[in-house]
Specification:
Strand order of the largest sheet: 1-6-5-8-10
Helix content: 10-25%
Shape: rod-shaped
Distance between the termini: 120 Å
Oligomer: single chain
Number of domains: 2
Number of strands: 13
Length: 243
């Protein structure tokens, strides 16, 4: 994970120059409690954790140091202020008292001394292996990423945003041949129905006339009438002769 501030431009106070140290850890959670800061990072626990070591004159081990970065008069300043041992759950007091508890002595931290960040002011946090306060001893020269966040109030929690999983672009669609829509069926429109009716009436008249006459056989051609479903054909009439 990248740094939220350009560490190469920071003036470091009362701590070792860590600008060239590799960032081998990632801060995963910062809880700004009223009783202290709770820190979680990827080199605190497990087989890849930073080693514990005991500074000269101490009766317990340290593992890492929590840093703060402040922007004062357009210049960034940073210092490793709060020491943590591996099982330390919180340290450093509430955020409203960082200036009084973290960087209070002008001979070590000026111009950071007395600068209490305002709520929402951009600040930075980082952890480094070993004892960075008063330029103490280091176990390994490694650091975490530097996170930049608005200065929190008591009770605030920082967690990095999850990086979105890259989505592979969809393949270009395979071109397909254009589909020709089917030709709609053509329904024949019968024009001149009056003429058809006239012809039918005429045929009926002729049939009536033939039935009234004594004729052996009458053959006639019938026209097709599509609208009525009548095909063309031959009509054969063989009237019966009354005896």
């Amino acid at each position: 994970m990248s740094d939220g501030l350009d560490l190469s431009t920071v003036q470091i106070h009362n701590s070792p120059d860590v600008k060239s140290w590799p960032a081998t850890a990632t801060i995963t959670r910062l809880e700004f409690r009223p009783t202290g800061v709770h820190v979680e990072h990827t080199r605190n626990q497990g087989p890849e954790s930073w080693p514990n070591f005991r500074p000269p004159g101490w009766d317990g081990d340290l593992q890492y140091t929590l840093w703060i970065f402040l922007q004062i008069a357009a210049q960034w300043h940073g210092s490793g202020c709060i020491q943590f041992w591996q099982s330390c759950d919180q340290n450093g007091g509430p955020p409203e008292e960082f200036a009084r508890n973290w960087y209070y002595a002008a001979d070590r931290w000026a111009p950071m001394t007395g600068h209490q960040p305002a709520p929402g002011e951009l600040v930075g946090f980082m952890v480094t292996a070993g004892d960075a306060r008063n330029s103490g001893a280091q176990s390994v020269q490694e650091r975490s990423n530097l996170v930049a966040i608005p200065f929190p109030a008591s009770g605030a929690v920082y967690m990095p945003k999850s990086e979105a999983t890259p989505v592979a672009p969809e393949p270009d669609p395979i071109p397909t041949a254009p589909v020709t829509p089917p030709t709609p069926a053509v329904v024949p429109v019968v024009e001149g129905l009056d003429e058809v009716r006239r012809q039918i009436a005429e045929l009926s008249r002729k049939v009536d006339a033939l039935l009234a006459r004594s004729a052996p056989v009458y053959r006639g051609t019938l026209p097709a009438v599509p609208a009525l479903g009548v095909p063309a054909g031959t009509m054969v009439l063989k009237p019966e002769i009354s005896k």
